[in-house]
Amino acid sequence: MLFEDFETLDVFGPVEILGRLTEHYQIDFYSEIGDTINNFHGVSIQTKKLENIINGVDIFLIPGGLGTRKEVNNISLIGIIKQIGGLSKYVLTVCTGSALLAKTGLLDNRIATSNKRAFDWVITNGENVKWIRKARWTIDDKFYTSSGVSAGMDMTLGFLTDLHGLEFAKKIAFQIEYNWQDDKSVDNFSEQ
Amino acid sequence: MLFEDFETLDVFGPVEILGRLTEHYQIDFYSEIGDTINNFHGVSIQTKKLENIINGVDIFLIPGGLGTRKEVNNISLIGIIKQIGGLSKYVLTVCTGSALLAKTGLLDNRIATSNKRAFDWVITNGENVKWIRKARWTIDDKFYTSSGVSAGMDMTLGFLTDLHGLEFAKKIAFQIEYNWQDDKSVDNFSEQ
């Protein structure tokens, strides 16, 4: 899912990892408006309307970025995320994307994490979420949430581990020459 | 610069890093045809024509990807890369992007590296290049070349170090919660 001023790597890190597995996954980009979505990094992506997937998808990825500050107050979008997130097989959030998911209530009584620099703001969007500040990523049933930006890649490889096994995930990390931090509890960015 | 079947992260890793520095850099996407460029990860990006920047740019980034196998034989594109690469202030390649740059002759008698799994093919595109197999990235005057995919992010942070200082680069890495491998001679993917 995209929205104006999404964070570039929140999206394209996971897209690099899942997109290359063409025998398993197909990537499609959606937004509320179903038109071209831009961000302040100069990236423009053509999207389809989220209402096309209102019955859920296999993997629903919600990125973060500056745009989340506006979208948490977009009642229409939060309603759509709740609907799609509820019916999708897996829901993955990167960075402040967890603020959007928290706002739906779907994370209530579940563990979750988010970007470290935006953490204090993120948690105001979900008072009943069991927020974990020090984590590279968290897993609670079908909900995966990661820390800031780059952590989305580590989480996605962790997600692949759960679905396809550790050797499979390691092979992908090797293919993209990525120094994967594969322990979700190790977070080098939560205490500075 | 984009072309059909570019590698997603080769582009959007560096775009995440440079694109957030809006006071220093502005990102634009170009291709030979100047139209929508697609890759097999499902990503579509609108581009302008490379001929618009034929007199060079500040930073000319050449990604890799499956598409390089075709583009090394695209004499017209190689000529354009030679022209723009020659006149640009800095030229950065990621992954097999160095095969395209090598083909122009601009890397002759210079050190360079590339994707490890494609290395034996890449070096056939530049017999006079001083190829270095074990390197996360290389620097030779204005030419920066990185290893595969994720290495482009490490190189871009190294490039920022040279232009803005180490503390500046470290700050960016911290902002995007990236475990930056900041030693360009350390390559964990060259011997497997």
- Oligomer state equals homodimer
Unreliable sequence segments of chain A: none
Biggest interface reads: A-B, 41 and 41 residues
Termini gap of chain A: 30 Å
Strand content of chain A: 15-25%
Major sheet of chain A: size, sense and barrel closure?
4 strands, mixed
What would you call the structural class of chain A? alpha/beta
Strand order of the largest sheet of chain A: 5-6-10-9
Q: Can you tell me the overall shape of chain A?
A: globular
Number of helices of chain A: 7
What is the radius of gyration of chain A computed over CA atoms, rounded to a whole number of angstroms? 15 Å
Structure in words:
2 copies of one chain form a homodimer. Chain A has 192 residues and is of the alpha/beta class. The first copy, chain A, has helices spanning 8-19, 68-71, 75-87, 97-104, 119-122, 151-164, 166-175, and strands at residues 30-31, 36-38, 44-46, 48-49, 59-62, 90-93, 111-112, 130-131, 137-140, 143-146. Chain A contains 7 helices and 10 strands. In chain A, the strands form 4 sheets. A 4-stranded mixed β-sheet of chain A has the order 5-6-10-9, sandwiched between helices. In chain A, helix 3 crosses helix 4 (97-104). Chain A starts with 7 loop residues before the first helix and ends in a 17-residue tail after the last helix.
